[in-house]
Backbone:
C-alpha cells in the first residue's frame, strides 16, 4: 500500500527528472538512455510535468546574470595585489552552487534533446494548436504517447491535464491512434459533437456542417449534443457515423477498415457524399480553390475516389458524372449547372 503523500511523490518525481538530466549530460549520445528517458516521460503525465518544471528552472536561471548568484571569484583583501583567490571562500561557494549549476547545465542538455526528439511535448503555441498547410499531411506523437495523422489544411487544438485528454478539430481531418489510459478519457470535440475513444483507432473528418467519424479499431462513443448523453451513439471497427447538421440527418453505416485512413495514401474515398462535402475535402489538396456557382449543386451525391495529387483530372471527369460544366477562372475553378 502506497502511503506516500502527494508532496513527497512530487518531490521524488522532480528528483528523478533532475537525475535524468545528469545522466543525459554524461551520455548525450546513448540511444538506450534516450529511449529509457522517453519511456519514463510516457509512463505518467506527472513525470512529464516534473521534467517540464525542471526545464523551466533552467529557463529561469539562464536569464539571470552570474552576479546574481555571486559566482564571480572573490579576492582576499590580504592578497589583493597578487590576484590570488581566497581558498576558503571559493570552496564554500563551490559547495553552495555545485548542485544548482549541475542542474542548470544538465537541464540545458536535456531540453535540447527534448526539442529534437519530442517537439510536441514543449509546444507552447496558443491552445497547443497543431496545423497543416494545403496539400500537407503530418503524423505527430502527442504528449500522452498517442499519435495523430493530420490531413492537409487541418487545425487541431490539444489540451491535456490530469483529468482528461481533450482535443478540438477546428477544421480538416485527423486519424487518431489512442494510447490507453483509463484515468484520462481521450475526447475529440468537433463543433457541437463530442467523440470519446474507448481504446481505439479512428478518423474524424469535418467538412462544413458534415462530420464523418470512422473507426478502424476498437470503439468510439459519439454525443451529438457535445455533452455526455444518456445513450450516446456508438461505432465499432468497420463502422462510421455521419452527422450532417445542414441536412439534419444522422446515419450509421459500414466502412472498410482499410479505407478509414486511405487519405494518408493520397486517396480520398467518398460514398454517396454531398458534392459540397466532397469539395470541402478536395479543396484542402487542390492548388486552386473549387467553388459551386449554385449552392443547390452541393446536394448532388458523389461516390468514388479522388486522388489528392490529381484533383485536376477529377474535375475534368466531373461533367461525365453530373450535368455540370467546369470552368477555370482567375481566382477559382467554378462548377456550374447545365440548363435544361
Residues:
Amino acid at each position: 500500500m502506497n502511503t506516500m503523500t502527494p508532496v513527497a511523490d512530487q518531490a521524488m518525481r522532480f528528483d528523478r527528472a533532475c537525475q535524468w538530466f545528469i545522466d543525459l549530460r554524461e551520455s548525450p549520445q546513448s540511444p538506450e538512455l534516450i529511449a529509457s528517458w522517453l519511456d519514463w516521460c510516457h509512463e505518467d503525465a506527472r513525470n512529464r510535468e516534473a521534467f517540464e518544471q525542471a526545464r523551466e528552472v533552467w529557463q529561469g536561471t539562464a536569464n539571470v546574470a552570474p552576479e546574481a548568484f555571486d559566482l564571480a571569484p572573490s579576492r582576499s583583501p590580504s592578497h589583493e595585489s597578487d590576484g590570488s583567490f581566497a581558498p576558503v571562500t571559493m570552496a564554500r561557494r563551490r559547495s553552495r552552487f555545485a548542485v544548482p549549476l549541475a542542474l542548470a547545465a544538465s537541464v540545458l542538455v536535456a531540453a535540447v534533446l527534448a526539442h529534437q526528439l519530442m517537439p510536441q511535448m514543449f509546444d507552447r503555441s496558443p491552445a497547443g494548436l497543431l496545423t497543416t498547410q494545403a496539400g500537407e499531411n503530418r503524423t505527430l506523437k502527442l504528449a500522452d504517447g498517442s499519435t495523430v495523422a493530420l490531413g492537409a489544411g487541418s487545425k487541431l487544438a490539444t489540451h491535456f491535464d490530469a483529468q482528461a485528454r481533450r482535443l478540438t478539430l477546428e477544421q480538416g481531418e485527423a486519424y487518431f491512434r489512442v494510447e490507453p489510459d483509463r484515468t484520462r478519457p481521450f475526447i475529440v470535440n468537433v463543433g457541437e459533437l463530442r467523440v470519446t475513444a474507448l481504446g481505439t483507432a479512428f478518423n474524424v473528418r469535418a467538412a462544413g456542417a458534415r462530420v464523418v467519424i470512422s473507426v478502424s479499431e476498437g470503439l468510439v462513443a459519439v454525443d451529438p449534443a457535445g455533452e455526455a448523453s444518456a445513450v450516446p451513439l456508438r461505432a465499432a471497427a468497420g463502422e462510421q457515423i455521419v452527422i450532417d447538421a445542414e441536412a439534419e440527418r444522422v446515419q450509421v453505416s459500414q466502412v472498410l477498415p482499410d479505407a478509414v485512413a486511405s487519405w494518408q495514401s493520397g486517396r480520398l474515398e467518398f460514398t454517396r457524399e454531398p458534392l459540397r462535402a466532397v469539395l470541402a475535402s478536395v479543396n484542402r489538396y487542390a492548388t486552386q480553390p473549387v467553388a459551386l456557382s449554385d449552392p443547390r449543386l452541393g446536394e448532388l451525391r458523389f461516390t468514388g475516389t479522388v486522388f489528392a495529387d490529381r484533383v485536376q483530372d477529377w474535375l475534368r471527369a466531373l461533367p461525365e458524372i453530373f450535368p455540370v460544366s467546369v470552368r477555370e477562372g482567375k481566382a477559382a475553378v467554378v462548377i456550374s449547372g447545365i440548363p435544361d
Remarks:
- Residues 61-101, 114-127 have pLDDT under 50 and may be disordered.
